[in-house]
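Dear H.,

Thanks for agreeing to be a second pair of eyes. The structure we're designing against is below in token form, covering all 243 positions.
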């Protein structure tokens, strides 16, 4: 009887641990292709591995287009989006943000010609401007400001067009643009900051209980300097420490 009970307890513990591991392994976070080559961001993956590890979850990652990831997260096919602005996720009723921001979306215009000065959106209205297809914020703001744009699938294509004088300016996120230009060996100039807003980690509503835990983790990691250390070349995207 005692031996049978022991076997039952061991089997139960094994099944529970297996179920927990499976649940953790199936927690999927979508990431954007910030770098075209290989479409992976090891530093950003490491950031979320550290954050979720502090609440006992081991996430997996799926790279997908920006428009598709919102649909996938809203439907529950994936569990979270790495980072989105409020305007991009607001119409998706099954998505909720973690209140502590994970990044800032800082938009600038990248140019090459030294004599081309851009200090406002109005300065772009008569220029040939490129944006990345699916990059919600620059696409939406350019449209709102009446700026005609050429859309490409990735930032690399736009910078090559810029270098070949087929575009006058490219509107994109500051840190992403700088890293991409550096990897391509293209020397670019930046306008003044045209727009800046916070970016939030977004969860499917079924994971609402994780939101306050992650909010504390993100704040702790920022205050400790852990986020800066892990993100490396992407640390410029971090928000200022919260007082």
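And this is the sequence the design step returned. I haven't edited it by hand at all.
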């Amino acid at each position: 009887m005692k031996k049978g009970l022991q076997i039952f307890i061991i089997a139960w513990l094994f099944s529970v641990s297996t179920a927990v591991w499976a649940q953790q392994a199936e927690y999927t976070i979508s990431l954007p292709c910030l770098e075209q080559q290989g479409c992976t961001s090891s530093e950003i993956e490491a950031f979320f591995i550290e954050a979720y590890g502090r609440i006992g979850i081991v996430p997996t990652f799926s790279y997908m287009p920006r428009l598709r990831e919102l649909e996938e997260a809203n439907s529950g096919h994936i569990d979270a989006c790495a980072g989105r602005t409020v305007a991009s996720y607001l119409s998706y009723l099954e998505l909720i943000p973690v209140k502590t921001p994970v990044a800032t979306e800082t938009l600038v215009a990248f140019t090459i010609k030294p004599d081309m000065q851009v200090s406002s959106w109005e300065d772009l209205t008569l220029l040939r401007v490129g944006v990345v297809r699916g990059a919600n914020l620059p696409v939406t703001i350019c449209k709102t400001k009446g700026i005609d744009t050429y859309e490409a699938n990735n930032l690399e294509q736009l910078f090559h067009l810029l270098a070949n004088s087929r575009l006058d300016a490219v509107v994109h996120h500051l840190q992403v643009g700088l890293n991409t230009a550096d990897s391509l060996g293209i020397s670019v100039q930046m306008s003044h900051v045209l727009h800046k807003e916070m970016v939030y980690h977004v969860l499917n509503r079924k994971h609402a209980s994780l939101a306050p835990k992650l909010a504390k983790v993100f704040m702790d990691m920022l205050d400790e300097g852990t986020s800066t250390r892990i993100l490396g070349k992407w640390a410029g995207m971090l928000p200022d420490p919260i007082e």
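Two observations from my side: The CA atoms of residues 101 and 200 lie 5 Å apart. The chain has a mean pLDDT of 87.

Warmly,
E.
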